[in-house]
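Troubleshooting log. The previous structure file for this entry was overwritten by mistake, so regenerating from the original sequence record. Sequence copied from the archived sheet and checked twice against the printout by T.R.
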Amino acid sequence: MPDFQYIAKELTGRQVTGVISAASNQDALALLAGRQLFPVKVDAVEANRPLLSFGGRRVSQRQLATLYAQLGDLLKSGVPLLRSLELLGKQAGTPVVRGILQDVREKVSDGMRLNIAMSYHKDVFGDLVISMVRAGEEGGFLEDVLKRVAVFTEHSEELKGRVVGAMIYPMFLLGTGGLVLSVLLVWFVPRFEEIFKKQKEQGDLPAATTMLLSMSRAAQTYWILIAAAMIAAVLAARWWLNTDEGKLRMDQFRLRAYGIGRIVKSLAIARFCRVLGTLLSNGVPILPSLRIAKDATGNRVLTQAIADASDNISAGKSLARPLAASKQFPDEIVEMISVGEEANNLEEVLVNISENLERRTHRELELVVRMLEPILLMILAAIVLFVAIALLLPILQISSLAG
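Regenerated output below.
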């Protein structure tokens, strides 16, 4: 059901703004009339949500974390929202952030709620942040939500930095291996082909050498086609991964991949538990909290499982039971959630689950990365060894025949 942003007047003449969900514009007008509100302006939110451009949309997550924290501090100090946005816009470090804040301020000054104004820049703020801001506005604790979002964004960026930092050396080894193999096939191996010509004519050339020379000729002759095929494959894969089916298949693969599937699932569940616990601790009801927190997983399989759990909760069931039925959540996590529901401290349990999962996952990730380095080194050594053996075997045959 679409949302409609409205500006209306009460019986007293006071102007109010808000968002209402309705099947059509006429239904939205009828709902407002039922609330004794006289609509001045009613617009469909989705129909008027173009993404604006300010000459480059790259905004670092650390910049956004600082922005959320500063906005929360200003609001908590009693500074009005419009004045806070104006101050942050003036001290923005980049033209992109300055332009976005100016546009958000203009829309808020026209009567639009902050979360809707931010949704015009969904590619910068993201669905999760916009949903949490909406919950904060509706619950009257916007400044607290902004502070929580700042901490969550900073925490996510720190985790991302750890993962990227841990993968730098393995990726360097992988790139080095590809470069070494290319140099060997294109420049080094062809120099031996003339030496082995007589053995090849006699049929005495070892199979490993024959294979290596064939690979070298293919690399020299068809390198343009090979490069074009690799580029086309990468582009096709990127296009497919941007489709709904491709995203779903990739998320399924991430959860099932040997070695990293457990890590991916643990990180996704940790994000979900942290966001859900944060929302519940701020007084947001369980159903709206689940609708917001399910997007924090970053995985469509888990998101759908949580959405199905939300439907069961609305039917009067507990959270733990439908999560267990989804088969996507570990038994120990489900058991802890069940205990938290029974003890009426679910929000504290969820935050503890998140912290424990993150600590455990960090250790597992470091172990996987440490194992990845020697594995890549062994693969690189095996490639070089294969080339060396393939080139030495014919020479050893010639030496034995000469002796």
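The chain has a mean pLDDT of 81. Archived copy saved in two places this time.
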